[in-house]
Amino acid sequence: MSQIIETYGNLLFEAMGQTLVLALWGLLFGCLLGIVFGLMSVVDSKICKGISLVYVNLIRGVPLIVLAFFVFYGVPYGLRTIFGIRSTLTALQAGTICLALNCGAYMSEIIRAGIQAIDKGQMEAARSLGLPYWRSMFKIVFPQAVKNMIPSIVNQFIITLKDTSILSVIGFPELVNKAQNVIAITFKSFETWAIVAVMYLVVILILQQVAKALERRLNRGR
User: By CB count within 10 A, which of 19, 78, 117, 216 is most buried?
Assistant: First the structure.
């Protein structure tokens, strides 16, 4: 095991960095999608609620590995076949899109629940003062909801980080992908996967402590 760390440690740490970058991009764009579809799910419009419901159920109902293959292979093929557009996606682009779509569906539910947890009187009071709906939402309701959502967002980042391992199937150089390369060279699968497991465990434990610290701080501020 020490020989693997000495020889391939830099490679695995670099792959861990790639994994964190991909997870951050996925969470960032996932949050944007979550805000859009989360807000659509709470407005007084059957069309908006229907669109949000279809998106959430569709993405959550498709395994992430299937979504990864569809985005990486299916989308370029569809663009070429239907529209005659010859384009390809890099593993980073496809991985980011895949994680963003998947993360966005869960973030949408987090945001919907966060907004609905705020007393309806807050919105009614803002509207009674003459504020438009969206201004009341973003100035009064949404900032309060965000405080409740922060621990859940950190937990979603942890889930997204673990989901990056699935993207090794499309060749993105994340930790699992590089570990497979190391095993192909050294034939030491037990030691390599043990190192990878410890690396994931350390990062995830740190993120869990961050989530708990944020939750305690928010609870004290109430």
Answer: 19
Q: Are 104 and 30 in contact (CB under 8 A)?
A: yes
pLDDT at residue 222 is higher than 60: no
Task: Say if CB 37 and CB 56 are below 8 A apart.
Answer: yes
Distance from the first to the final alpha carbon of the chain: 48
- Number of Cβ atoms within 10 Å of the Cβ of 191: 16
- Altogether, the residues listed in the chain come to a count of 222
Model pLDDT for residues 35-60, shown as the tens digit of each residue: 999 999 988 889 999 999 999 999 99
Q: Which of 160, 147, 158, 30 is nearest to 97 (CA)?
A: 30
- Here the tokens at position 82 are 């239907």
Residue type at 11?
L
The secondary element (H helix, E strand) that includes residue 14 is helix 2-40
Return the DSSP state at 129. Answer: T
Q: Where are the alpha helices (DSSP H) in 87-171?
A: 91-116, 120-128, 133-136, 142-163
